[in-house]
Amino acid sequence: MAAITRLQQLQLLHPPPLTLRRSLLFHKPKQLTRSRPRSFSTSPILCSNNSHNTPESSASTVGANASIVGDLLDYLNESWTHFHATAEAKRQLIAAGFHLLNENDEWDLKPGGRYFFTRNMSCLVAFSVGEKYTVGNGFHVIAAHTDSPCLKLKPRSASSKSGYLMINVQTYGGGLWHTWFDRDLSVAGRVILRGSNGSFVHKLVKVKRPLLRIPTLAIHLDRTVNKDGFKPNVETQLIPLLASKLEEASVETKEKSTTTSSKAAHHPLLMQALSDELNSNIDDIVSIELNVCDTQPSCLGGGNDEFIFSGRLDNLASSYCALRALIDSCKSPGDLSSEQAIRMVALFDNEEVGSGSIQGAGAPTMFQAMRRIISCLADTYVGEGAFERAIRKSFLVSADMAHGVHPNFMDKHEEHHRPEMQKGLVIKHNANQRYATSGVTSFLFKEIGKIHNLPTQEFVVRNDMGCGSTIGPILASGAGIRTVDCGIPQLSMHSVREICGKEDIDIAYKHFKAFYQDFSSIDKKLDVDS
């Protein structure tokens, strides 16, 4: 195998314009079987990253058999943090003609309208109102989350050890922390800047170049690591290295800033990197909220380019499929002309740590929005219990990534429930209500797939293993909304680098879009409580 040149390394980190790669990104099914072996290529054409790709431009190429995989790669490469994921979703919604609302203002909504709002720039609710909607009709919702396990900078991140500048971090969520060692890392998140007129400005920031690294200990100094396992102490041994102390002195001399004091909360070198990205003075940065991020781009991989290799697939893959399905289900005139319900996407933060926050699914964000929507669209008195009646007619798809069967650890799955990649969405079941799926909700969701010839799979955890959970039970119990838990199968969940099947992305998108378009007619055919 030929060595990768420095130029090729730079191309991988900074891919050329998407227009030079788009024609080579997608593969028709017949192209997946090649007549002769393909030589390895370091070309970055499979790593898509173009923030100017809009839903309108991409939607024109997405027909019944086209793919959204390239657009997902763009979204993943833009969305290093939950803040960036929400901001990119906001940009795409505005480009698609959705109207931005503010929770602090009065709303003026109309049938046929498309709207959204954000909270904390890490939570988003978007919805489109059917033209035949009447108060008391239901909401058809797909809910996902924007956060992923990661390392977050501590409020005082500056420390030093043995002549190195180190960055103190907190672990967020249940990550596979050993996978963060020996990766080319950087930082991204949000800052608050002091404005020239005394105001404050909220901005997102992303340092794209490799800035940090967590080096492993050489095997010569840890001879039993392969036998005993790699078990780093996350407080003392999971600390990213920023630079040598020599660099700090040069920055202090250059900036002569009050923030370069040895007692500063963050290293001056880190603050200088942020300042350069923001084109601001260090002294104007009054607050930071940063994640440590892997700099390797999301890309296609595998012998036939059938996999997606990326960080944060859990759960940005679900978030994007849901967002795109909503946008595309109402992008053309007439798409809402016969719809009697309200189509909605809800993307929450903090799922990985229990959802108990103002921007998490544990907050009443979505249900408060539903009440406001009903109130806005009620021209006259509509009788008692309008919200309660609407909830009983509503349906929620809780979309969160699923555990695909691991070929090297097949015994970790119940033998009759082993979801495979490339074979469709996985419906999750748990008798102890760790998932919110019921026999009724599972049937209705599978029926949508059956009508459109979209495959589904089933998952239950082994009885001798613990079961994870999702936002599904939280939302289902929050207001009594019917819910199905489902997800795209993946491997390496909660690793810094995860893997899922390319075909499953398109299947999920089509299933979600069909849910918006067809659920009203299917739901009418089944009556459970009469």
TrEMBL record:
The keyword Hydrolase applies. Its cofactor is Zn(2+). GO terms for molecular function: aminopeptidase activity. The keyword Transmembrane helix does not apply. Its EC number is 3.4.11.21. Keywords: Aminopeptidase, Hydrolase, Metal-binding, Metalloprotease, Protease, Zinc. SUPFAM superfamilies: Aminopeptidase/glucanase lid domain, Zn-dependent exopeptidases. It catalyses: Release of an N-terminal aspartate or glutamate from a peptide, with a preference for aspartate. Belongs to the peptidase M18 family. This is aspartyl aminopeptidase. It comes from Prunus mume (Japanese apricot). The lineage of its organism: Eukaryota, Viridiplantae, Streptophyta, Embryophyta, Tracheophyta. The gene is LOC103331182.
